[in-house]
Design a protein that fits this description.
Helices cover about 45% and strands about 20% of the residues. It has about 375 residues and is of the alpha+beta class. The radius of gyration is 26 Å and the shape is elongated. It starts with a helix and ends in a 13-residue tail after the last helix.
Length: about 375
């Protein structure tokens, strides 16, 4: 298949792997697109080659057990496949979790905002239940700095679970802009040194109204600008280095990583279907899914350039860029299997039709209502 050779060439431009490893990775990516799940039993069916399915399955297991991945190189490969711009990026922190029996896979992810989605660049399986530690987040940022540099960061976004004194102090020390949500029951000191509850400061806000402290507040020992917005049944409080309007607009982009997780899970590659429990193997799977996501999204961008997606009445696209590219790639591979469909049609023509089968087999009248018969 010429497309397979082309995929190997593209991967070779970004990954300095042995040819046999690249071939295995290319086959794995193509099979993943076709079967739509990370379950190795299914991936082995679409893996290709002349070997038996059991042999393919064992080869895939050896791949995850033996291949050493350089995740900094994977990040460069994802950025290259995505064609990310040279201008600074907006980074988003979030965490996704899925359980397998008593085992919890808890993945901390640092992604780049794409405007309508987010692509993961660095991740870490924190190997415990619950929230990540500030040291884990700093570790991912340090990996990003070593590959792309501090100047490549425009802004860091995070939800309430990432609000910590240590992370904010670290970002301020690096002179990195951030916008992180904090719990509205947190306490901070105003410019007079008085300790106040954040929800009390915003108690008179009506739905849709915003608030900003006149002067920076001392939050957990850090001098921070606080911004708030009254939303339905909740209060959105942000610790940020931005203005009110910009902070609210930028924080809305944090939702992009949720759509990214949906693409990696049930709406795309079904990450939760993996039966792997070892930390290093689940991290390898996420690296492969990041490459698959980049492939799908870039294909969607190409299709969007050829023919823009229809905008519905609510103002959003009828189909996302990732989903459009993902569906196109899958349909392409399925169409390549048309000879097998024709063979199946020829085989079915040799079998007796339903009418002929009924003529040969006497079916009792009481059973003729059965749709199978």
């Amino acid at each position: 298949m010429p497309q397979f050779s082309e995929l190997c060439k593209i991967l070779a431009k970004h990954l300095d792997w042995h040819k046999a490893r690249l071939v295995c990775l290319a086959r794995l990516l193509m099979s993943l697109m076709m079967v739509g799940t990370v379950n190795l039993t299914h991936v082995a069916l679409g893996f290709g080659g002349n070997a038996q399915v059991d042999s393919r399955y064992r080869r895939l297991k050896r791949f995850f057990a033996e291949v050493e991945m350089d995740y900094q190189q994977i990040a460069l490969a994802v950025a290259g496949l995505m064609g990310l711009p040279n201008e600074p990026w907006i980074l988003i922190f979030d965490r996704t979790r899925w359980d397998l029996g008593v085992r919890a896979n808890n993945m901390l992810v640092l992604s780049v905002s794409l405007g309508d989605n987010a692509v993961p660049l660095f991740w870490k399986n924190i190997d415990k239940r619950g929230n990540s530690h500030a040291s884990d987040r700093k570790e991912l940022l340090e990996q990003f700095f070593s590959v792309f540099g501090v100047a490549q960061i425009k802004l860091v976004l995070g939800d309430r679970e990432f609000a910590s004194s240590e992370l904010m102090k670290y970002l301020q020390g690096k002179k990195i802009l951030f916008c992180i949500r904090v719990k509205d029951n947190s306490y901070a000191k105003n410019h007079k040194g008085k300790r106040v509850k954040l929800s009390h400061c915003c108690r008179r806000l009506a739905l849709g109204e915003t608030w900003q402290g006149n002067k920076p507040y001392q939050l957990w020992g850090n001098e921070i600008t606080l911004v708030a917005l009254r939303i339905e049944n909740d209060l959105l409080v942000l610790a940020t280095t931005l203005s009110v309007q910009e902070a609210l607009e930028r924080y809305a982009q944090r939702w992009e990583i949720e759509t990214s997780f949906a693409a990696l899970k049930k709406r795309g590659f079904c990450l939760e279907d993996t039966h792997m429990t070892k930390v290093e193997r689940t991290e390898k799977w996420l690296a492969i899914l990041a490459l698959a996501f980049a492939w799908s999204y870039r294909t969607g961008q190409w299709l969007e350039h050829k023919e823009p997606t229809k905008i519905k009445k609510h103002g959003r696209k009828q189909i996302s860029c990732f989903r459009r590219g993902y569906n196109f790639i899958r349909q392409y591979f399925f169409d390549a299997l048309h000879p097998l469909r024709k063979a199946g049609e020829q085989l079915s023509s040799l079998l007796p039709t339903r009418r002929r089968a009924r003529e040969k087999i006497m079916i009792p009248k009481k059973l003729r209502f059965c749709p199978v018969l």
